[in-house]
Structures are given as structure tokens and as C-alpha cells.
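Memo to structure team: turn this sequence into C-alpha cells by end of day. - J.P.
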Amino acid sequence: MNQNELKHALDMKDRLNKVGSGFCLAKWDQVTMHLHNGMTHSCHHPAPHKIPLSEIENNHKAIHNSKQKIEQRKSMLCGERPGGCNYCYKMEDANSDTVSDRYLKSANLFEDRFDKIISSGEGKDHLPSYLEVSFSNACNLKCNYCSPTFSSMWRQEQESSEPIMLFDDKTRERHWQYHSLQDLKNKGELPYTNREYNPYVDAFWKWWPNLKNDLKIFRITGGEPLMTANTFKLLDMLKKDGNPELFLQINTNLGVTNRKVVDFCSRVQELIEMKHVKNIRVFTSIECTGKQAEYIRRGLNYELFLQNISTVLETVPTAYVSFMTTYNVLTVPYFKDFLQLIVELREKWGERILIDIPHLKEPPHWTMNILPKEFGRYIDSDVEYMRQNGFQDFEIRKMERVREYFYNDTHNVTEEYRLNARKDFAKFFPEYDRRSNSNLADTFPEFTEFLKWCKEL
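Reply from structure team:
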């Protein structure tokens, strides 16, 4: 963050707090809709909540302006702090000089919407400017740390497989907490299949004609959005009636056929030329290369992935490709291979190649913090590699934060948590290998001794 951005965020801090100590523009203007299971949240920090079908039957706009959000907005306008937004409030209370996401998002994404949001009051019919939507959980991959909620392939596997009994740190019991279809069903979060009528998707298309004109950023996610007809329906709708200020974004694993990627990119390029959208940014996710990437993202063809990256950048000359790494336990010895890939891509495509380096925090057996500290030598080496190979300062700082979290994790990771996560590491990966006819030790030889040690626990 540069000094101008800092000053901008601090100015916004004063404006927000004059309305209320918990007031945040994102509660009105940013929305993620998981239409595949009827969940929604504003901002990415609060947990998603279920939208009752009765609400969208009476008002299709409730897929964003749900009763729960409206109550939270009311409390913000009254100077209160809704509990779901504690991520930012805790940071601010711990250090009054902290620049939280409440200030940053409001300043950088929604500043020009301030007066409009205030005038909308609780926002029963508010039209957001930033929308992220998943139409379906249809997916061609079974990424190790994903789940049936976001992957139809994982759901299919769980329908025919016994659950894996893992430790739940909250309940202090052993049960499969992420992949149980029965748990999802009990909570009303089991996704609709592509074959089922989905009233939440229906509500979205009813809202679209009004929604389109206020949008500045529209991000399609999944599942794999290139596997759902609704993604291409959206492109058809924009061709008929576009928004020249709309910045289109998509989260895709780029593991689908090259023909499908060509079809999608050609349509997008046509929209850009027609000035029916402003531009596109393609978000994809990988944190290793070659066989390690294919192990973590089961079903991925790494060479096809690289081909599809080139297709995006060649077909849409203004497009950006942003890599969202999921830095995890298996990443640690192999992350430099990914960094070298970024260097190679930037030699050809320059600043059109972007990266982000968040670290995975759950499930516990996938976190880097279960590793012995000697694995830190890989992270140290990666930081130095980035310094020597032209990475931006803010990118290096993100990697330094990963390192800081690895070495100084005592405030987040107890020894009991670490012990149970290591036991689960020894339970999960042999079962994963059995199901996928793979072998962790052959693909990641650096983990041979660690897996053996975890099994002995």
C-alpha cells in the first residue's frame, strides 16, 4: 500500500465512522451469491447465510437484499457492529492505527457510491456495483481441499464412498466435517444439480435487467463456470444489451477443453470490441507445476492448462490472467517451480500476468503449519528468489507474510491442533491415494518421512 492509498483509506475511515463505528459500504455494494445452494454474503469475510425460499418468492432481489443483511445494515446505521463482520472490528480494536478491509474496500471500490448507499437506507431494493455469482457447482476437477459444495465431482465421489473420519477442532469429535453429504443436507446447503430447477438462478435472471446497469465488477465463479450454460447465457445477454463500464471477471480452473476456452474468449473479445463490456480478468488457481499440480487438482491436465493460458492471452489482447495460489502443506517444497513459471510467462506477456499468495487455513490437515520448522528453508529460499527475479514489492510482501505465519503461528495454532491435524494428514492422504490410484510419496518425495511420522502418531 502506497502513501496515497493509505491516506485515501484513512480519509474513508473518518467518513464511515461519522455514520457509525461499524458502518461499511461493502454491506450494501458487494455481494457473493452461491446460487447453487442458495447462500449469500456481503464482503468475503462474513460467513455465507441461507436465503429462505419464501423471501425470493416474495422479492427476487432478496438473493442480495435478504432480511439478515437488512438487519445488519440497520444496525450499522445505528452505530452498532453486526457480529458477522468481526474480522475487521477485531483488527481495529487491537490497533487503532490498523487499516482494515472495512476502510480499504470502502475507499477503493465504493467511494463514489457513498451518497447513493446512504440515501438507500437499509437498502431493501439496493442494486450492488460488485457482484460475484456461482450458478452451479458443476466441475471437472476434484481438488484435494475442495468439497461437494463447490465440486460436482466431489459430490459424485462421496455418493459412492464411505466418509473419512477426521477431527473437528470445534466439537472435539471425529467426523468428516467437509465432505459429508448428509451434513450439507441437514443444513439445507446441498447444492442443486444441473438437472434440477433452481429457484435462486431463476430469481437472478428476473433481477438481471435492472441489476446490469449498476454493476462495475461482475465475477463468475463455480464450480467451473465454463461448464454451466448460464455463463454463456450471460454473454448472450450482454451481447444484446451490454454495459460499457462493466469489468467482467471469471474464476476458472482452465482445465476444460481448449475448444471451450476459445469459444468463451472469442465471445468476450466480441463484447469488448462492441463496447458492451470494458475488459476481462481471468482468475485461475495453481501453486505447483507438472505432476504435483495434477495431484493436488485431480483431473487437471497440466499441459492443457498452459495451452489454455496462452489461448486467453492471445484471443483477448487486453485480458489479464491472475493466479490465485492456495499456499498449502504440499506447496512448500514446490512453490519455486510455480514462481519460475510466473517468470517465464511474464517474459512473454509482461504485466498481464498477476499473482496473489493467500495461505490456506482450513481444513487443518492441509495447512502449512503442521510441518516441522525445517521446511521453512523452502519458504526462505522462495522469498529470496522473488527478490532476485523482478517480482513487485507488494508480491514479495505477500510471500513474507506467508513466511511470518509459518514461523510465528503460536497465536493461531496450538500444539493440540497441530497434533490432530497431523493425525488427519496420515488418515486423509492414504485414502485419497486409494481412491485416485495415486501415491503421495512418489509424487512428493519430500513428504515420505513426514507421512511416516504422522502415521506413527
